[in-house]
Amino acid sequence: MSIMSKSPKVLLLLATLTGAASVSLSVQAQEQEPPAADVSATVYGDRPVDAGEMTEGPEVKGIISARSGARMQVTSADGANSVITINDATKIKASGGFLGMASNKLPATQLLNGLPVTVKTMQSGAGLVASQINLQNKDLKTASMIHNGTDQRFAEQTAATEALRGRMGDIDQYNVKSTTNVNFDTGKAVLSPQAQQELCAAASSAEGMDNALLLVVGYTDSTGSPDFNQALSEKRAGKVVNYLQQACGWKPYRMLTPTGMSEADPLADNTTAEGKAQNRRVAVNILVSKGLDGL
User: Fold this and answer.
1) Which of 44, 152, 57, 66 minimizes the C-alpha distance to 111?
2) Positive or negative CA dihedral for 224, 225, 230, 232?
């Protein structure tokens, strides 16, 4: 049906209806049209670090005090801890081998706790990444023997443990798991690099035991007066305690009160140089309370 009219009122009504229909169609089109694409994606996982995005980092010297997956913690002589990532591009070199030859590539499994290392690093947004790790073959051999429990000095642990049980009345409250002895020069209380390595290895071993405590006992040989030796044995014990806590990360609340025993309880004959060398020591005993052992 067609309606034709020249009436102004009719024309105005038609125009109004036409405009409303146009607006309605426009609104429907906008409602049906999908919004402009504003794409956002979340990517989970570690993004590989591009070497071009890294800058040269510090050279870190110290002892490996912890390992976890692709990361290691290196503790410097001042007690500072650096967490460093190891990746497939990391070169691990050992020097001091036969005729001075070095192994250009060692597996990361050779990076054992207690091993002295020098690490060249790169700095990324995620932290330090090792570009090269240098170590000595002799240190690697010692760390491996300690790790595998085959170090000759560990053969003395049973006798030292029994001696400890015999001289300390309240030791019966604890099970003595092992004893590590570190030695000193005559009249000195200075830790050698080997002693430092062995202390961190002992702390690492104790860390793997539930409810373990450390008892540190210092000794001297028969050289010197009783008063001097008492003070020296206490000083040696204190040096070991400080190193265990500051360099090896052992918690103070997991340590019994250290003591100095002067020249008491010698391991060997004090009339020989070899015997005296064995007696100038600090014993680090790993203890677990009998009431907690096995829990």
Assistant:
1) 66
2) negative
pLDDT in tens, 61-75: 988 878 888 889 888
Put residue 187 in one of left, alpha, beta given phi > 0 → left and psi -120 to 50 → alpha: left
Distance CA 205, CA 222 (A): 32
Q: What is the amino acid identity at position 13?
A: L
Max mean pLDDT range (29-33, 194-198, 224-228): 194-198
Indicate whether 19 pLDDT > 80: no
DSSP code at position 280:
S
Q: Which of 170, 110, 120, 173 is nearest to 142 (CA)?
A: 110
The two beta strands, 116-124 and 212-218, are unpaired
C-alpha to C-alpha distance for 2 and 140, rounded to whole angstroms: 103
* pTM listed for this prediction: 0.45
Which ranges of the chain does DSSP label H, i.e. alpha helix? 8-32, 137-148, 157-167, 193-207, 226-246, 273-279
Query: Hey, what domains does the chain have and what are their CATH numbers?
Result: 52-137 (2.40.50.140), 151-289 (3.30.1330.60)
How does residue 30 score in pLDDT terms, banded at 50, 70 and 90? very low
Surface-to-core class of residue 124, CB atoms within 10 Å of its CB (0-12 exposed, 13-18 middle, 19+ buried): middle
Q: Within 10 A of 213 (CB to CB), how many other CB atoms are there?
A: 19
Tell me how far CA of residue 27 lies from CA of 36, 134, 220, in angstroms.
16, 71, 95
Give the SS3 label for residue 36.
coil
Crossing angle, helix 193-207 and helix 137-148, to 10 degrees? 30
